[in-house]
Amino acid sequence: PGSVSAAFQEYLQHLGLQDFPCGFGSWNKSRLSARRSPWAEPAGLEEAVPPGEETPEALLELLRDQHSPWALPPDCSPQDRLLREVAALAPELLHGSRVFQAVKSLRILDKGVEEVDEGLLRFQQLEELILSANHISRVTSAHLPRTLKVLELCCNAVDDLQDLCARPPPELQHLGLGYNRLCGPSQEKHFTVDFWPNLVSLDLSFNNLTDLLELVSQLSTLQNLHILVLQGNPLALIPTYRGFLVDSLPKLSILDDIHIQPEERQQFHGLARQPELIRSEARVVVSIGEMKGLPNPEAFQQLEVGSEGPVITYSYCVTYEF
Questions:
Q1: Cβ within 8 Å of residue 156, ≥6 positions away
Q2: Does the keyword Repeat apply (predicted)?
């Protein structure tokens, strides 16, 4: 599928919400028709289940028993289990477009998704959107539900955040952009309180961000930021990288998956006021002590000056691996 909507339809088919023991069918027709009837009896006064039909408890047992052919695998998500059980107990709640109202967490991993389409706006209760390991390069904020609190785009091809930051979800608390193609210094400007007023957790690991000073100046505006992941970026190679971040962002609790202890914060106190310690370039000197397997140059220096003997030129390619 090329879009999130297409991948979601495949996901629903995989769950089989319209097939036994879920959905509408001969196994629950009297119970559901009575529920929809205006003359339905009050709860607790219903007659016994007719022959050939199943009780709600029996349908749930078929979904939950691991020996049942209709059971979900043990590693399924809580959302999978919830939708299946709702489809068994009250399938009318998931009938047609109502299914979009029941989804609060949507996980579509490694399904070849390339587009975050406007079909996502049908999920009016969506709080968590996980789209990791796909092929997404752009995210248009106008296609994201305003209710989102978690947006995870790890392992995609995102290289620009302009469209995402045009009108981002205001309540977003976690933004995951690890293992993408964000390059500095053009992208640092997108990580300010103007775009993410409620952001608590930010993952920018393994991109190509290079300007630590500029990034820190933007991140310092995020008053609720407590968790930050920057490892894997070129800027993380700076010797004073961790200390500078710890001292510059006093509300940070976890940096690169390591808790910031009070002793560490005290150790790096004052480093934020010394930006001259952060250098944007480095020099490496490589000295060659001995080379083996090459002809001795002295063997080719026996020709007299001015002789017309053949001249042989040797070229060598030397590769350094660090």
A1: 131, 132, 133, 134, 135, 136, 137, 179, 180
A2: yes
Phi, psi of 245 (to 5 degrees): -70, -45
- As a whole number of angstroms, the distance between CA 140 and CA 148 comes to 14
CB 139 within 8 A of CB 116: yes
Predicted local distance difference test score (pLDDT) of residue 46 = 47
Q: Average pLDDT, stretch 128-147? A: 97
Residue 265 has pLDDT above 70, yes or no: yes
Three-class secondary structure of residue 202 per DSSP? strand
Is 75 exposed, middle or buried (CB count within 10 Å of its CB: 0-12, 13-18, 19+)?
exposed
- Asked if pLDDT for residue 171 goes beyond 80, the answer is yes
Residue of higher predicted confidence among 81 and 257: 257
DSSP H helices in the chain: 4-15, 29-36, 56-64, 78-89, 99-102, 212-219, 241-248, 262-267
The CB density around residue 155, as the number of other CB atoms within 10 Å, is 19
Q: How far apart are CA 228 and CA 249, in angstroms?
A: 10
* Assigned token pair, 176: 């995951």
DSSP 3: B
Q: Which of 65-69, 222-226, 263-267 is the least confident region?
A: 65-69
Give the pair of three-digit tokens for residue 103.
């989804």
Provide the edge-to-edge strand list for the sheet that holds 150-152: 105-107, 128-130, 150-152, 174-176, 201-203, 227-229, 254-255, 258-259
- The pTM of the full predicted model, rounded to 2 decimals, is 0.76
